[in-house]
Amino acid sequence: MDEFSFINSIQQSYYRQSSLLKGIGDDAAVIRSNNQDIVIAKDMFVENVHFNKETMTPYHIGYKALAANLSDMAAMRAKPAFYLVGISISDNWSTDDLNEIYEGMQSLANQYNVDLIGGDTVSGSELVISITVLGFTNKDNASLRSLAQEGDIIFATGTLGDSQAGLHMLFHPDNYKDEKYFKRRHQMPSPRVDFALGLQSISRVALNDISDGIASEAHEIAEASNVSIVLQDEKLPIHPYLSQFDTDLQYKWKLFGGEDYELLGTVSKREWETVKQVASQQNVRVTEIGYVTAVQPVSRVLFQQKNGKMVRLEKKGYNHLSR
After folding, report:
1. CA 312: distance to chain centroid?
2. Using CA atoms, how far apart are residues 74 and 70, in angstroms rounded to an integer?
3. Model-level pTM?
4. Percentage, residues of the chain above pLDDT 90
């Protein structure tokens, strides 16, 4: 069983609480309050799975752990407000390390006015950080994966493959171009919260944060919306210096790398101009990278190569339970 099959296996067939609008199956859950919807997301960071001391300082670990959760808020068009932290600390981590981890979280939380409201600290055999974030969005305004429609434009923020390039540099020291940029993209990603909040006026937008790789995220939108998606290779945004790596690594990182924490989205052609305007106002790069079509018998996600040939794009990317 892989990670996604496991998630499907534990999903309830119905929910008992009438206030729950969206449970398992998106970037976050959505609960109806009096005049807003409450959005809740949870992520875990595990030592030697998501990070280790070779590639991340304690500050970076705390920063990135919270960034992953705030990225889920962005993917739901929600404003983050509160977070809780459960942390298991082994003997290999000192009190100073623990303080630095929380300093990393707090520095990012300060950028978005997010409050730490609780959690738990225990001892264990390895460092594990579990963060729950709560945020708010207008009623029925969460950007669910199920909102894509045939004819929509597919877009992505930022550039793809940067985080994996940074991780490669950390493990394989050499004389790289723009090394500081790529390492920062791996250690201190920028969740696109403000950009997503700027899309509030758009009537319908499907979003997914790029945590496991754009191929995986595209499949999740296609499956939830019962459509097919075409990604066009010549349009995928990459940093100019990604070209310093061989073409196989470039291909792997931009499609399957993950941990870029950018946003993949679909929007109607009519409202694409609004997306570009918001991106310009927020100084965020946004790129049209494909389109939504009716369900295809070949694949949920198709990849149009630079020579124009269409090929099936597998649902590959980071998957914990397939390791």
Report:
1. 23
2. 6
3. 0.88
4. 75
